[in-house]
UniProtKB/TrEMBL annotation:
<keyword id="KW-0809">Transit peptide</keyword>
<dbReference type="InterPro" id="IPR018376">
    <property type="entry name" value="Enoyl-CoA_hyd/isom_CS"/>
</dbReference>
<keyword id="KW-0007">Acetylation</keyword>
<dbReference type="InterPro" id="IPR001753">
    <property type="entry name" value="Enoyl-CoA_hydra/iso"/>
</dbReference>
<comment type="function">
    <text>Key enzyme of fatty acid beta-oxidation. Able to isomerize both 3-cis (3Z) and 3-trans (3E) double bonds into the 2-trans (2E) form in a range of enoyl-CoA species, with a preference for (3Z)-enoyl-CoAs over (3E)-enoyl-CoAs. The catalytic efficiency of this enzyme is not affected by the fatty acyl chain length.</text>
</comment>
<keyword id="KW-0413">Isomerase</keyword>
<dbReference type="GO" id="GO:0006635">
    <property type="term" value="P:fatty acid beta-oxidation"/>
</dbReference>
<comment type="subunit">
    <text>Homotrimer.</text>
</comment>
<dbReference type="Pfam" id="PF00378">
    <property type="entry name" value="ECH_1"/>
</dbReference>
<comment type="similarity">
    <text>Belongs to the enoyl-CoA hydratase/isomerase family.</text>
</comment>
<dbReference type="GO" id="GO:0004165">
    <property type="term" value="F:delta(3)-delta(2)-enoyl-CoA isomerase activity"/>
</dbReference>
<dbReference type="InterPro" id="IPR029045">
    <property type="entry name" value="ClpP/crotonase-like_dom_sf"/>
</dbReference>
<protein>
    <recommendedName>
        <fullName>Enoyl-CoA delta isomerase 1, mitochondrial</fullName>
        <ecNumber>5.3.3.8</ecNumber>
    </recommendedName>
</protein>
<keyword id="KW-0276">Fatty acid metabolism</keyword>
<keyword id="KW-0496">Mitochondrion</keyword>
<dbReference type="GO" id="GO:0005759">
    <property type="term" value="C:mitochondrial matrix"/>
</dbReference>
<keyword id="KW-0443">Lipid metabolism</keyword>
Length: 292
């Protein structure tokens, strides 16, 4: 059973297990898909490709996060798989990050439940025993960038519209300390200091330069590149790689785990402020008006 902080996520977020489809793939592997998370298994290679499918922009709503958490738990417990490729099924968008509608005009209990799910997905991805390769085939701001940062390797499609970064300050909000820790671990303190304060969204060439991604490739090569990177990582004995990954990441994850409840309370009181609500509403309105 999938648990989120000791409770059944299926019940909390109203996601019905019946919404899932379970079939067998061509190679006999069990293929499972929820509404918004598509899993393409390659049992022979030990790799599952997760495609995020929450159109139009893969914003991380509570239901979407819940489906993703359940999917990751299943894969983590299935010894068939040693690696995950994380990518998007929404053209041009990897993920628009946290769903702003979950953080606007709701009550404190909702904010707390939402933030717990955000923490949970980060912990699941960051501490995964599997090899995670992000095949970033679209724009990847804020929470979208964070998901990519949890992966062991990032390949970004070469398109100037596919910008990636933690742009929270542009929304008048603050990247939580564990977003910051994950970024510092990836690009170093000085670059993270600048990127976070300015809310920088890096186009591919700059993202590569600063170390936000490991490789930039033409868009039509993104999946084949992710597969070839994966085979390189899977050539390392699991126990040695997993213990090394844990050694590198445990302190950062523990930082959040130890302060999980306090972090939720901080988030709830921060996001509930009138001034923050106003900033988020203005930002959402601007996004909507962009088209007109
Ligand atoms: C004291 C210390 C306390 C610490 C407290 C910590 C507090 C931290 C709090 C929060 C942290 C949040 C991290 C986040 O992830 S916030 C989300 C940030 N995301 C963004 O800024 C991205 C916004 N979106 C875009 O830039 C674009 O939409 C883009 C992804 C580039 C796609 O562009 P395009 O293809 O042109 O699509 P549209 O802009 O037209 O969008 C289509 C519709 O989707 C809606 N949308 C977009 N993004 C979001 C989102 N993140 N959440 C909800 N909805 C979103 C957009 O409004 C359009 O809607 P509609 O069709 O109805 O007009």
């Amino acid at each position: 059973m999938a648990l989120l902080a000791g409770r059944t996520v299926l019940l909390r977020a109203g996601v019905r297990l019946g919404a899932e489809a379970a079939t067998r793939g061509g190679n006999g592997a069990r293929r499972f898909a929820s509404h918004r998370v598509l899993v393409e298994p390659d049992a022979a290679a030990g790799i599952a490709t997760i495609k995020l499918k929450n159109p139009p922009v893969n914003s991380l709503s509570l239901e979407f996060l819940t489906e993703l958490i359940i999917c990751l738990e299943k894969l983590e417990n299935d010894k068939t798989f040693r690696g995950i490729i994380l990518t998007s099924d929404c053209p041009g968008i990897f993920s628009a990050g946290l769903d702003l509608r979950e953080m606007c005009g709701k009550n404190p209990a909702h904010y707390a439940e939402y933030w717990r799910a955000v923490q949970e997905i980060w912990l699941k991805l960051y501490l995964s025993n599997m090899v995670l390769v992000a095949a970033i085939n679209g724009a990847s701001p804020a929470g979208g960038c964070l998901m990519a940062l949890t992966c062991d390797y990032r390949v970004l499609a070469d398109n100037p519209r596919y910008r990636i970064g933690l742009n929270e300050t542009l929304l008048g909000i603050i990247a939580p300390f564990w977003f910051k820790d994950n970024l510092v671990n990836t690009i170093g303190h000085r670059a993270a200091d600048r990127a976070l304060q300015l809310g920088l969204l890096f186009p591919p060439t700059e993202a590569l330069q600063v170390g936000m991604v490991d490789q930039v490739v033409p868009e039509d090569q993104i999946h084949s590149t992710a597969l070839s990177v994966m085979s390189q990582w899977l050539a390392i004995p699991d126990h040695a790689r997993q213990l090394t990954k844990s050694m590198m990441r445990k302190a950062t994850a523990d930082h959040l785990i130890k302060q999980r409840e306090a972090d939720i309370q901080n988030f709830v009181s921060f996001i509930s402020k009138d001034s923050i609500q106003k900033s988020l509403q203005v930002y959402l309105e601007k996004l909507k008006q962009k088209k007109h």
